[in-house]
Amino acid sequence: MEFDKDLQSIQEVRNLVEKAKAAQAVFASFSQKQVDQVVQAVAEAAEKEAVRLAKLAAEETGFGVWQDKVLKNLLGSREIYTYIQDMKTVGVIREDEENKVWEIAVPMGVVAALIPSTNPTSTTMYKTLICLKSGNAIIISPHPGAKNSILETAKVLVDAAEKAGAPTGLVQCIRVPTQEGTSALLRHRDIGMILATGGEAMVRAAYSSGNPALGVGPGNGPSFIEKSADVPKAISHIFQSKTFDNGTICASEQSIVVERCSREKVIAEAKRQGGYFMSPEESEKVGRFIMRANGTMNPRIVGRPAAHIAEMAGITIPQGTRVLISEQTTVGKDNPYSREKLCPILAFYVEENWEAACRRCIEILNNEGIGHTMTIHSEDREIIREFALKKPVSRLLVNTIGSLGGVGAVTGLAPALTLGCGAVGGSATSDNIGPMNLINIRRVAFGLKELDELRRESPVETESGLDMAVDCREEKKTEPCGVSLSKEEIEAIIRTVMARLNQ
Q1: Of 7, 153, 323, 431, which is most buried by a Cβ count within 10 Å?
Q2: pLDDT band at residue 360, thresholds of 50, 70 and 90?
Q3: Catalytic residue among 131, 173, 250, 358
């Protein structure tokens, strides 16, 4: 007898949440030292298996380059651990003696972690580490297309956590992932937070679940090469980003925007470094494969090299081509080149000046990827400042690699594989998500003033109905408030005023 997979998945989710809730209750009693011991053990185990798990992910999904996935696994393990290891996340984490306020860390409880197929092993490592550091349990919901590599990664993390003293059930993974099972997980009343990384529909489902959620929508970052830029270096950064793991990081550049005066120089350098500018006919052929009929990205192009995409589209490109480039003049949902492309394909826009380029970048972001990330290559700090003030993004990266800069691998940003898009992007935060996003802060506040002090400091209504300062009323006990006048003096003032009125 064959059991219904949806029913299996739903029941599994219920069991996992029950176990996770019990385990987290025990984990909540751990000291900072005990928590840190678990986190360190998990990070070290993940780092040790970085190569094996990278190969497994590449083999299972067909996305990207396993050597690059090793680097992402190291980011999700070693680099994350280095960044978070000294964070105070248990008990009293801050004492403000001047204002007499204590801050106490309170875990969210059970975190539902949705894992994408583009970065399956590294995201599993990263989310597990930040959940454990913040005192939470985690239930991993794998993308069906990367189930085996995610399950294997979870096994490594579970074994390490429990050997280090973590209660059984603190780290778990759904073994029968279905859409219905995932939906049941998101809606479960005992879920304290959802960490959603993946497609737009999945993120929307997380936010509409009724539970708190931190989600990341699509990226679609343009890259502006301003005329003062070091063009060879700018192209090198963009191409490195677009070919790193074949463009599967959502912070990677999706289009190049240049001023007309720089057009030929940029094109020549892009060709020199392995960019192939497609003809209109070739662009049309490749464009058919970028989006599916329902308007979503075609998984057949995701994480594939330029040569594979060209062959699939039926066009011939020079040997050694790294990136396919299509010159465009329009932006819209019906133009696939103006949207997110998680592969080595770039749109190319030419504008009259930097102001027009600025407007074009905003148009691209409003079309898709608003709130996420973009890059600028420039030596003009004033123009960089103007872009920083006007662009609807949470990360503006300057003279660096978009994909690796956004996740904090080559910049000073917090290392993370979930990048908040802020309110403009429909997200609850603009942060690179870390442990502090997964705790509530309980504040203990000691009294600083008494009511009488407030009254002395503020204007109030007196019993006579006149507005005056309390401290003035207090002084009235000894002498009248303001200037003291005799009856004769008051009468003299009245006579003077009346005389002037009758003149």
Answers
A1: 153
A2: very high
A3: 250
CATH superfamily of 222-410: Aldehyde Dehydrogenase; Chain A, domain 2 (3.40.309.10)
Mean pLDDT of 450-454: 92
pLDDT exceeds 50 at position 472: no
* Catalytic annotation present for 361: no
pLDDT value at 439 more than 60: yes
pLDDT higher than 90, residue 475: no
Which 8-state DSSP code applies to residue 413? S
pLDDT above 60 (res 482) = no
Asked whether the domain spanning 222-410 has the same topology as the one spanning 10-217+435-444, the reply is no
Q: Which CATH architecture has domain 10-217+435-444?
A: 3-Layer(aba) Sandwich (3.40)
Nearest to 40 by CA among 121, 154, 119, 157: 157
Measured in Å, how far apart are the chain's first and last C-alpha atoms?
Answer: 113
Backbone CA torsion sign across 82, 86, 91, 93: negative
